[in-house]
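Retro notes - structure team

What went well: the batch runner handled both jobs without manual restarts.
What didn't: labels got mixed up in the shared folder, which is why I'm recording both outputs here explicitly, each with its sequence directly above its tokens.

Job 1
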Amino acid sequence: MSEHINVIGGGLAGCEAAWQIARRGIKVRLFDMKPRTFSPAHSNTDLCELVCSNSLKGAGLDNACGLLKEEMRRMDSLVISCADRTRVPAGGALAVDRDAFAALVTESLRGAPNIEIISQTVEALPSGVTVIATGPLTYGGMNDVITALTGGEGLHFYDAAAPVIAADSINTEKTYLAARYDKGTPDYINCPMDREEYDDFWEALVSAQRTPIHENIDVPNVFEGCMPVEIMAARGRDTLRFGPLKPKGLRDPRTGLTPWAVLQLRRDNTAGTLYNMVGFQTNLKFGEQKRVFSMIPGLENADFVRYGVMHRNTYIDSPRLLNPDYSLRSRPEVFFAGQITGVEGYVESAASGLLAGINAAARLTGREPLVLPPTTCAGALTAYISDPEVRNFQPMNANFGIIQHEILKIRNKKERYERISANALEALANCTKNI
């Protein structure tokens, strides 16, 4: 057995896995293809690049992803620590300056003992304990390696990113600052639409031209949690009004009324010079994005510094392949982590990397693996993706529905979720005392 552990992939999961291994006194060889090679979705030379949104979702303990982040904080997560240090105002969510975040993670790993960062593509499986965290855009030699390890083609779905707009191009005379239900500080720019404006926008959106994905594919297999806005709109005229354009809780302070529909813009960097169109992942052609999205009040002269894009994401059939410690059943010295395992979301990916890293270190040193109970959020995600009884496997976000808990007769949803979170953190403390 080698004296080091290989980690392949420098995204959220790979960086977190490398950090967890190294802090246990074990040498890590962290492979990442950047900056020599870039996927179609990447552009930053740093590790841990956030490709889609800059939001790590809800921060409070009445939110399942907020609970997951707190569990990770208590297990010394590098990703969450760096996110906390590079956060930007986002109401009740944890959002980050994506460039500062990636730079801080990279700096932390480069300065850590026991970590060697190797910039190259990996075409064959290295010997020894290895964590594969190559992400959903894996291709080339590693794609062949994974296909051989898993006995066939991986599953896949299509993922999309939202456009980013220059702040100084937003017409503030037609927008207002507010957080939904006044929760947190009013950090979102809100673009209100009346019924006529919304109907005109919807008509233009559903008839706009999309970028071709693949031959003979019109409406691809999309992940429900990150659905292109044009596909969502095609499900019905009012679908967006109950989704990303939901106006509830966003009363316009200038009129005292709730608009028919509202687009929210969230700060994308610390300086506040860039804003992300919340929930507007899209696969429209770039010219169509400019034409259609400029119909939204306040965005008539919007400068789109980055248009939305769609890409194919691949994940393995984890319920048939993985143990609860993220190791491969057929090759227990090989671990998988990140979106390729079927956990969906930035925080979820990093959480899987944290646990895969801890357990890879345990494998090398002969210790018992850490398998968190399903009463925790991280443990519930692990249980879901490694449960052989799961059929028709689809990517899974953190949510309270998968967390095992006692029946609580608490009518207030916020209070009920906070109680589940408190119980989860107590369970976490009981099983992580010696990690």
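Job 2
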Amino acid sequence: MSDVLIIGGGLAGCEAAWQAAERGLSVDLYEMKPTRFSPAHESELLAELVCSNSLRSNAIGSAVGLLKEEMRQLDSLIIRAADATAVPAGSALAVDRLRFAGYISQIIGEHAKITIIRREMTELPLSDIPVILATGPLTSEAMTASLVALTGEKHLAFYDAIAPIISAESLDMDIIYRKSRWDDDNPGDYLNCPMSEEEYAAFIEMLGSARTVPLKSFEDTKYFEGCLPIEVMCERGKDTLRFGPMKPVGLAHPETGKVAHAVVQLRAENLGETMYNLVGFQTKLTYREQERIFRTIPGLEQAEFVRLGSIHRNTFICAPELLDSSLQMKKRPSLFLAGQLSGVEGYVESAAMGLLAGMNAARLACGKQISAPPSATALGALIHHLTESDPARFQPSNVNFGLFPPLGKKIRKKERGGYRAQLALEELERWKSEQE
């Protein structure tokens, strides 16, 4: 019999398994693929990325960059894999998604303390050992029903959209130019499709009248503000996209110096740069409409779509009512929740909750005391958001400095990120010493 049971082989589940196993505990990791696939998954590999291939900023002065560094300090498998399979993306940490999932699958598969069981779990097991539920935003109806039966709370849901991916060979590089925003010292890691005012107006008009995938009668759309479908942003005003993902500022043409009216950016999907995704172009347009409209973007007239955008359900619990700061369920302390299901948003944040759940489950199994990271750390700020928010207004969140406690002193704006990072890493080191 194992010491810890984990349900779900995504980012959070794999991170939790790694953390528990590295502490000497035997782990059973249940993953339903390839017996069953969710609507957004295609690969048999563990830790498959289904949306963007970017883990966002790697700068330690940003909240998500700080979160990554804290995870590195705690020997995160997910961040180790991301660093090992990174593709050029400026100051962001983006990965070759196949190599990334392959790296994690190999490490987990070869670990002497981890047993992967390829079988779907349809209900929460009644177990005396710690159980970590990390089934992600696409948790099955059966497992969701089992969770609701335990908590007595109705689950919440919103919808997360996926951006299209285009073959590099189909790009018109006579029109498209390479440049990262504000980076004049090198060619940059992003490709840019410039639009004139007339081209932008025509694009907005088409987008505004395009057909989208209809929601089912029982579905209630609750979009995450950080990942809005492009057509939803378009509905908010004709210039919304020009001040969002199509912002031209800092992207003057490197040869002519001309600043376009709007710019569509492309980011490499793999290390070989044979595929690119449309940055910020997550969508619920029908496939035919995507092909028709996105091929009007200058440089994408002959675009070959490796993957078209889609929309999928994202399920999460009302964490302030249901979770302790250890990520244990208040009604069943042997059950931990991790990943997006716990109420965070984003790859890094999901993996971070897997890291803490794995550490805490291991401590519980060994009879050790559990404590949450200090709130001045990125990890602690996320836990505070999950457990101390107003339940009536709770929504998933990416990590951001707005979740951190006040600094208590005036710091120049440009220096605040670095100052917070210094404080956080000092607090994290102290907490680590206490844990050990």
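One thing worth noting from job 2: The mean pLDDT is 91.
We'll revisit the folder naming next retro.
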